[in-house]
Amino acid sequence: MFRSLLRWLGLDAPRSVVGLRPHRTVEMPCSFEDAYARALAAMDAVLGANVRDADPVSGIIDAEFGMIGSERIRAAVESGDATHSRVHIEARYIATAVAPTRSLAVDALAEALAKDR
After folding, report:
1. Which of 7, 32, 33, 98 is most buried, most CB within 10 Å of its CB?
2. Is 90 inside a domain boundary?
3. What is the largest CA-CA distance in the chain?
C-alpha cells in the first residue's frame, strides 16, 4: 500500500539496478559432483583466481583475483538430478559509487563451463 502511494505521488525511486551484481547461470548436463569439479578447475584454469573457500557439500566456491579493486567470484552449484546441474556465477566488488554492470570474469567462466558440455 505504501509503495502504491509513493508511486501515485511520483516519489518512487527507480529500482532497475539496485542490488544487482553481474551474474550468469549455466545449465550443465552432468552430475553435481562433475559440475562442482569443472567449476573449481575453471576458476584456476580460466581466471587464474585464488580460491579462498571451496565447500563440496554446499557447492559454493569463493575466489578472488586482482590487486586494485579486486574482484571476487562466487560459483554456486545446484543439483537438478543425477544428470543435470546448474551453476550460478556472481561477481562481487568492493563498495563503489557506481556498481559495475558487467564482469568479464563472469562471462569467461560461464562460457568455459558452457563449452565443457
Report:
1. 32
2. yes
3. 53
Write down the pLDDT at residue 99.
67
**Angle, CA of 9, 21 and 115, to the nearest 5°:** 140
Q: How far is CA 49 from CA 2, 29, 45, 65, 85, in A?
A: 45, 25, 8, 5, 23
Domain that includes residue 27, residue range: 22-115
Average confidence (pLDDT) per 10 residues, the chain, 117 residues: 67 56 91 94 90 93 77 91 91 72 89 82
Tell me if 83 is assigned to some domain. yes
Please count the other Cβ atoms lying within 10 Å of the Cβ belonging to residue 90.
Answer: 17
**Distance separating alpha carbons of residues 111 and 104, to the nearest angstrom:** 10
The total of structural domains in the chain comes to: 1
